[in-house]
Write a structure and sequence with these properties.
This protein has three domains: 4-99 and 200-262, Adenylosuccinate Synthetase, subunit A, domain 1 (Adenylosuccinate Synthetase, Chain A, domain 1, 3-Layer(aba) Sandwich); 104-195, Adenylosuccinate Synthetase, subunit A, domain 2 (Orthogonal Bundle), CATH 1.10.300; 266-428, Adenylosuccinate Synthetase, Chain A, domain 3, CATH 3.90.170.10. By secondary structure, the protein is of the alpha/beta class. Helix content is 31%, strand content 22%. Strands 9-7-5-2-10-1-11-16-20-21 form a ten-stranded mixed β-sheet, with helices on both faces. Strands 15, 17, 18 and 19 form a four-stranded mixed β-sheet that branches. Strands 12-14-13 form a three-stranded antiparallel β-sheet, covered by helices on one side. The relative contact order is 0.15. The model has no long low-confidence stretch (mean pLDDT 97). The chain is globular, with a radius of gyration of 21 Å. The protein binds guanosine-5'-diphosphate, 6-O-phosphoryl inosine monophosphate and magnesium ion. Residues 8, 11-13, 35, 38-41, 126-129, 131, 133-134, 222-224, 227, 238-239, 272-273, 304 line the site of 6-O-phosphoryl inosine monophosphate.
């Protein structure tokens, strides 16, 4: 297999876990490069479901080495829980996993700050996953983060003391919240020392040596291009770059290592958390279009990390085109095609209208996008089931026509179609 970056190009949950798991046997290495336990990547093999947050989605394959890169933020408790769950399911996770020495650690005070900030914002909250992601990336950039390699440093005690002083000042004085205690932090650090230090490695070096020896590498993204801190619906985004370019800085490799970029997107759109969503049809706050409800129910649209109901809407080609461009996508993977089965008609948003003018690109400001009204093309639906179909020829004619238009309007070839949650439900084109 060529060295491939697999990323989401909508608002996350596009089915990245499934696609990475199914491509992993052809890769020698699967590497995560950004995000943290905000991600929830679902794998279904013969009906059995595994949800991964930090462990790369290649972990179920015996001959695939899994790497967690420096660009990720690691919550030791979450990672260890995940490792234990995998181990009890018979997966020798420690043998297959290495973690970058340069990874930032998410500590209890990051979660406390995340929660306090969201509570203080009230109705204006971002709707984060509450996993401490934003505060952990802030500490990284502010150069006060604690990295895995710091667990062996004699200066660690002083750094923690200094960080706690600053955090607790904010928590108690500004947010009127409870402080985080030193023993809470020490407990997390002990877990990391005991369970993660043995897996610590120079991930960049591993990748370079493997590449030199002809290994193939699959780079696994988290979130999606519309949640990218620069190119997403800022400030309703996550705190990392999620585009393909982030794979380089998040692992310590150069762009010459990448041969292709897969842009994964659903045949419709979903979003969890707040922020603009032009094609939205259905949400827990009272939007209740029947097609939107069909997508939510058939698609079982509940967050894999938080269990929150996902907002649903029609496929937005303006969004996907934006993702294709900012991430340099060379092939589209369309997932959840089967969820469209039984809809009388299907709409594609091909452009927006704003203040009487046609808009073909995603505006930089969230309010600008909020003001955009979708311009739709309408397609006939199909009544046949596409669930589990593995050959393009067997798809209903109406589905083929819809897909041809998606390819054309997004200006990118479709390379794979997913027709169900299981690893085997796939059409290679
Ligand atoms: P990720 O975060 O991108 O890995 O996606 P999630 O795992 O959060 O959400 C995708 C959900 O859709 C999971 O429950 C998958 O099992 C499921 N899924 C993936 N592909 C398909 C598909 O083609 N059809 C259906 N019906 N479900 C799918
Ligand atoms: P995967 O990898 C969907 C969303 C949150 C919130 C915003 C910021 O499974 O696709 P954060 O906790 O990152 O500070 O939250 O980003 N979000 C996701 N939405 N899928 C994800 O990951 C997400 N990770 C974060 O809902 O709107
Ligand atoms: Mg997910």
């Amino acid at each position: 297999m060529k060295n491939t970056v697999a990323i989401g190009i909508q608002w996350g949950d596009e089915g990245k876990g499934k696609i990475v798991d199914l491509l992993a046997p052809q890769a020698d290495i699967v590497a995560r490069f950004q995000g943290g336990p905000n991600a929830g990547h679902t794998l279904v093999i013969d009906g059995e479901k595994t949800v991964l947050h930090l462990v790369p989605s290649g972990i179920l394959h015996a001959d695939t080495l899994c790497l967690i890169g420096n660009g990720t933020v690691v919550a030791p408790e979450t990672l260890v829980d995940e490792m234990d769950t995998l181990r009890s399911a018979g997966v020798p996770v420690e043998e297959r996993l290495r973690i970058s020495d340069r990874c930032q650690l998410i500590l209890p005070y990051h979660r406390a700050l995340d929660a306090a900030r969201e509570a203080a914002k009230g109705a204006g909250r971002i709707g984060t996953t509450g996993r401490g992601i934003g505060p952990a990336y802030e500490d990284k950039t502010a150069r006060r983060g604690i990295r895995l390699v710091d667990l062996t440093s004699p200066q660690l005690r002083d750094k923690i003391e200094e960080n706690l002083e600053w955090v607790n000042f904010q928590l108690t004085r500004y947010f009127n919240a409870s402080p985080v205690t030193r023993p809470e932090v020490e407990q997390t650090l002990d877990i990391a020392r005991e369970r993660l230090l043995p897996l610590m490695a120079d991930v960049s070096l591993i990748l370079h040596e493997a590449h030199r020896n002809g290994a193939s590498i699959l780079f696994e993204g988290a979130q999606g291009a519309m949640l990218d801190v620069d190119f997403g619906t800022y400030p309703f985004v996550t705190s990392s770059n999620t585009v393909a370019g982030a794979a380089m800085a998040g692992l310590g490799v150069g762009p010459s290592m990448v041969d292709e970029v897969l842009g994964i997107c659903k045949a419709y759109t979903t979003r969890v958390g707040a922020g603009p969503f032009p094609t939205e049809l259905y949400n827990a706050e009272g939007m209740d279009d029947p097609s939107g409800r069909h997508l939510a129910e058939r698609g079982n649209e509940f967050g894999s990390t938080t269990g929150r109901p996902r907002r649903t809407g029609w496929f937005d080609a303006v969004v996907v085109r934006h993702g294709v461009r900012v991430a340099g996508v060379t092939g589209l993977v369309i997932t959840k095609l089967d969820v469209l089965d039984g809809l009388p008609e299907i709409k594609l948003c091909v452009a927006y209208e704003k203040d009487g003018e046609r808009v073909d690109t995603v505006p930089a400001d969230a309010m600008g996008l909020q003001a955009c009204k979708p311009i739709y093309e309408t397609f006939p639906g199909w009544s046949e089931s596409t669930l589990g179909i593995t050959s393009y020829d067997e798809l209903p004619q109406a589905a083929k026509e819809l897909l041809a238009r998606i390819e054309q309007i997004c200006d990118c070839p479709i390379t794979m179609l997913s027709t169900g949650p299981d690893r085997s439900h796939i059409i290679h084109l």
